[in-house]
Amino acid sequence: MAEVVLTGVTKVFPPDVVAVDNMDLHIQDKEFIVLVGPSGCGKSTTLRMIAGLEEITEGEIRIGPRVVNDVAPKDRDIAMVFQNYALYPHMSVYKNMAFALKMRRLPKAEIDQRVRDAAKVLGIQLLLDRKPKALSGGQRQRVAVGRAIVREPKAFLFDEPLSNLDAKLRVEMRAELKRLHNQLLTTTIYVTHDQEEAMTLGDRIVVMEDGLVQQCGAPLDVYDRPANRFVAGFVGTPPMNFLDGTLVGDNGSVFFDEGSFRIRLNDSQARSVGEWVGKEAVLGVRPEAMGMDSAGRFVGAENAVGVKVDVVEPLGEKMDLYVSTPRTGHLVARVDARGDIDSGQEIKLHLDLRKVHVFAPGLNGANLTIAVAEPARA
């Protein structure tokens, strides 16, 4: 086990495509860190550079005390699990798991012990004599993980390992991978495009876009305090709602003016956006922070938005309302389920101002309110 440190790491593909741009990342020993972002953001390229499958253009990669820039993949003491499992089809599960150990010329007794211990941890003891073609997708994934476990590496690298599984099995394997990490405590670097997967697995998540780290932090911190509009829109299901408007001052207060309604910012938010008063800005609010609470939890005259209900999606205890405003267009609100809401109805949604963010304009506009935002209370 070891820490993994990237310092100024850059990858440029010919002729001049920058896949990863000056990346600094310190992954602690025993940490489970997830690189997440849309396709083409540079997350898999980063993982392949750590593994040694891609040469870095600039910078330094260190695994434990050793700089590995010029170290061959087989000598980096890491184990990688691929999206397509990469099992040898002509070998049994046992031989697939034992192969790397045989190449290292370990004693037969030690190989057998490691393979059977890993199989027990993964619950695949009864599959050791089967060939990969006789296994389900979930079983193949367990074998691929087992092949990594037996090597007892300094770090595990996972490249979208669950993307070929169905939704139910993905959820089960997420829990299995988290349990394994808690048991083995091996440094783990995991790549996915699925932000829900990232939120549930990672001790920290690294949100990437255009080869750059947009934000790195604990999952809930990234969710509650997104650094910019890209992070806010990428992390969360349904994604955050964004409304274009202008910040205006009025009688000592600061309002976000959308054109068809006004939202009064709280005192800390008003202080943080002071320099932006009179300028265009973007209001961000998550679907669950918009409500119709009869108990009056966040009902108030200065945080109400009049909307028209376009679509109602029942989800059991909750329901998603797809609504529209005269100027902004479509928004999504996740509210308590009730039977008196129908498509075409005009209603008022009330915003939980503690969970409202104000962003600078642009797709990567900075969050202007996180520096002194009030913490959300349950």
What does this structure look like?
The protein is an alpha+beta fold and about 375 residues long. The chain contains 9 helices and 20 strands. A 6-stranded mixed beta sheet has the order 6-7-8-3-9-10, sandwiched between helices. A 5-stranded antiparallel beta sheet has the order 13-12-11-14-20. Strand 16 and strand 17 (about 320-325) form a beta hairpin. Helix 2 packs parallel to helix 4 (about 135-150) and helix 3 (about 110-120) crosses helix 4. It is elongated and about 80 Å long. Residues about 295-300 and about 370-378 have low confidence and may be disordered.
Radius of gyration: 25 Å
Class derived from helix and strand content: alpha+beta
The biggest beta sheet, please? 6 strands, mixed
Q: Strand-residue fraction?
A: 25-35%
Give helix % range: 10-25%
Q: Could you give the count of β-strands?
A: 20
With helices defined by DSSP (H or I, 4 residues minimum), what is the helix count? 9
| Shape designation | elongated
Mean pLDDT comes to: 89
Order of helices and strands: EEEHEEEHHHEHEHEEHHEEEHEEEEEEE
- Termini separation comes to 38 Å
Major sheet: arrangement of strands? 6-7-8-3-9-10
Low-confidence regions = 294-299, 372-378
